[in-house]
Amino acid sequence: MHCSLVLTASLLVLTLLRLTPAASAAACHPDDEAGLLGFKSGITADPSGMLTSWKKGSDCCQWFGITCLTGSRVTALSLVGRPGNLTTSLSGKISPSLSKLKFLDSIYLQDLNNLTGPFPDFIFTLPNFIIIYIENNKLSGPIPARVGNLTQLIAFSVEGNRFSGPIPSSLGNLGQLSQLKLGGNRLSGAIPATLKRLSNLTLLSLERNQLSGPIPDIFPGLTSLISLSFSHNKLTGNIPNSLSILAPKLRFLEVGHNSLSGAIPGFLSKFQALDTLDLSWNNYTGPVPKSFANLTKIFNLDLSYNRLTDPFPVLNVKGIESLDLSHNLFNFGSIPKWVISSPIIYSLKLAKCGLKIKLDDFRPVQTYFYDYIDLSENEITGSPVQLLNRTDFLVGFYASGNKLKFDLGSLRFAKTLKYLDLSRNMIYGKVPKAVSGLSKLNVSRNHLCGALPPNKFPAASFAGNDCLCGSPLPPCKA
């Protein structure tokens, strides 16, 4: 009986403790609370109040961005802003006090914009890390070689910061890694050959850096790779033949904006799972391999700004979404039928492709999805009115340097239209009021006349016409 009374009294005390404010604090380990409050003290600006709930004495497992999966211990810190939105930013430095969170295994500090300082050292004191996403901030300095000691990592991303220096070769020690994203920094030097040891890697992004030298022969070890991006660097040579090992799985291959040269490798036609291929802004020469007809699943193809020549193969695609063949040495004459017949195309860029069509005759199967059309620097005649009047979501239309002849006032402007370039044609009539809703406009060197509607564009947008007047041009005569 005595034991029963003691047990009942103990349960009553526990129940009362749970109901008191102090008891709720017990759910959060004091080391974790101190570590997180130390992080908060290093933040100098929090315009959206992201850390408002972080209050001493309250349960830190209930704070915004905190996850506790090991009893009362914090296992994940997740503070994520909205890309490009400064109201969801955090300013300040990442406090070393986070080293007190002994069970922390995942950190997400993404799109906070204004976090500064070096790569956070506290990470090396915590052996359990499996996920590190510190993206789109302003961290700087080198990526420490010690990152190769974090052998349990399955995802490592520091893209969109200001890290400089070489890519540590020690990254090759991270054998569990599935994602490696270092894009959008200031990294330089060669791509380390040690990356070939990352056999579990599905995504490798080194884009938008200052990497140089040839693409190393790392692909025989990367047989799980689905997405590869080396775009916007200073890489030279050509794509190694060993890349063909990835043909069964690779879906995204982006090596645009480099200095790659030679002929486009024929083995790329083996990549029948390929969704996106970007070889733009390189020094590729010669014709596109005829075997590209095998790329039946490709949705996004960008070969622009090379020195590619005819003939262009017929692609056996069921539908292409985005196509850019601009600024090569092609002489297409007409727009290929496999382009016109695509039911899902939204971006078509064929600038300087030797087109000699009458635009009234361009009648694609669908215009509903179009958001960008660029037909600049061709020998196109006629009027775009019929085409553009069928588009509801068009954002940009570019047709400068052609022989278009139509009344600009007859053009219907989609509500979404932001960019319009019709310069260097034979367009006549008045400039309609609808141009005031555009972000960029160029109708220079045509045969337009009359008073300009209220607008925010520079005089260069209207220069070289017959008799336009009004701001920003000289005033109209009474």
From TrEMBL:
Annotated GO CC locations: membrane
InterPro entries, sorted: Leu-rich_rpt (IPR001611), LRR_N_plant-typ (IPR013210), RLP29 (IPR053213)
Leucine-rich repeat-containing N-terminal plant-type domain mapped to chain residues: 29-68
Keyword list, A-Z: Leucine-rich repeat, Membrane, Repeat, Signal, Transmembrane, Transmembrane helix
Residues spanning the signal sequence: 1-25
UniProt topology in membrane: Single-pass membrane protein
Main localisation: membrane
Subcellular location: Membrane
Source organism superkingdom: Eukaryota
Keyword Transit peptide included in the entry's annotation: no
Record's protein name: Leucine-rich repeat-containing N-terminal plant-type domain-containing protein
Species of provenance: Salvia splendens
Taxon lineage: Eukaryota, Viridiplantae, Streptophyta, Embryophyta, Tracheophyta
